[in-house]
Amino acid sequence: MRSSAAPMAPRSPSHRQGFRSAFPAKLNSHEGDVTSLRPIGYNETIMASSFNLNAYGAMFRVRAAYSFEVGGLLVRMYAFMRTIGTVSMLTLSGYSYFMAGLVASVVAFALFLISPRVSKKIDERGQGAIVVPATCIALSGCAILLVTVLLKLPIALCFVGAVLMGFLPTPQALTRARWVYLVKSGRLGDGAPELKTVFSYEGVMDDIVFMVSPALSIALASGIHPIAGMGCGFICCVVGTLLLASSKDTEPVPGWEKKLANQEGAASADCSEGAAPAESGAAAEGLRNGSAPAAGSGIACDVSADAVDDARASKKKRSRSLFLTNPVVRTLFFLSLLMGCFFGIFDTATVSFAQIELNDPVFASLILAIESLVSTIVGFVFGMILFTARQSKKMLAFSIVIGLGYGSMIFVSSSVSLLVVIFVAAGTYAPFVITLNETAERAVPEANITEALTWVTSGSICGLAFGPTLAGVIIDTWGSFACFGTGAFVALAIPVLAILTYPMMKKQVG
Fold first, then answer.
1. Residue 443 in contact with residue 509, Cβ under 8 Å?
2. DSSP alpha helices (H): ranges in 224-302?
3. Alpha carbon 221 to chain centroid, angstroms
4. Which residue spans traverse the membrane (predicted)?
5. pLDDT band at residue 375 under the 50/70/90 scheme
């Protein structure tokens, strides 16, 4: 069923020409040449930032995006409930923190192995062909966990379910890929929002869900039933996936970037020798419809051997993972991994502190809710700031900020000090995550955006799963306060990694 949103503005030739002139390097770049992805006119100097109160207006006017944005938000709720929800569900059901963390670690390992490959298939075949089947597999794994805990079945079944949960497509990547497609393909006409604003908005949504979902999961599990948190996430995922699937008009057409950037080359590959030239209007119409010209359509062919070799080399490179071929994506993955790890440690330590030290599990929900509120406000304001600094320097600066902010966890010694740390540190999360995703978008061609963003998100999800495992061992051995200290050292590793990789970042993304 298609979305009932109003139809999007048709693309005009003038807008398409403006789009080409604005991003010529990116459209015509080879996949391996990351530095050529910068738009013409990119300023290498750092200038003062400006503040735009109407930055989000263009986004909110895109009614066709409402359905997939709400759907993506709901699926994200499940994705961010998944780790702490698993830990809370198992520990409140009588299992040890170590066992709960071990199950969460299996989820992380499955995500690391499976989720990027699912995203790669989505880039190749389209969201409509992959998202629903993959989500059904992931939800079957979640159902196994819920039934196992509810019926007190052998814990080994939880590990089977944990593996299947790794098939869930990354919702953040799905929605961002749709925005990139709508904006850069010209589907939105002259009123298209800036991608900087889009990624800021998406970052705010990530921030809200990232902070609210664990708190909601803990509150439901501790206040109603151990499976209530994960059960809520399960329902959110089902509804969100249905909304995403129904919004077919906004799905990226597989290979749209290549068709737009290499229209003549793509047409030549489908032609027979000696065919007559096609009318430019017919080619443009085919491009507007998201399809390449048909074989025998009359477009002249003159493909050199070098062009064929380049195409084969490009195809071979696309078959390899971005994690292996792109150093920026690899670095962003590890930065995100560290972020997720210290958040996983922090969440688990907070739950343990509330349950063991204060004998009040609801206090953990209060702490995470405060963190969510502060971070959301900062993230929304950050989205209206128009930076003109180099992307590499922004990445370095906000890595240092978040490292120092959450590095202050080492000073937690009471409920009061925990509240102080939260107020100070929570505001550093949104700028870091927004900049992380902006850097990923800049580092790869649009055709690979889903996979690139999935690697970034997989890093945080893996960290969120491995963090509780480490936290469980520390809590069982030394207690909650030692766990906060460990999280602080993990957080401080972020600026260390950012500093070490800054020369590479500067070369690759500017």
1. yes
2. 228-246, 256-261, 263-269, 280-288
3. 26
4. 95-114, 126-147, 153-174, 322-346, 366-388, 395-412, 418-440, 452-475, 481-502
5. confident
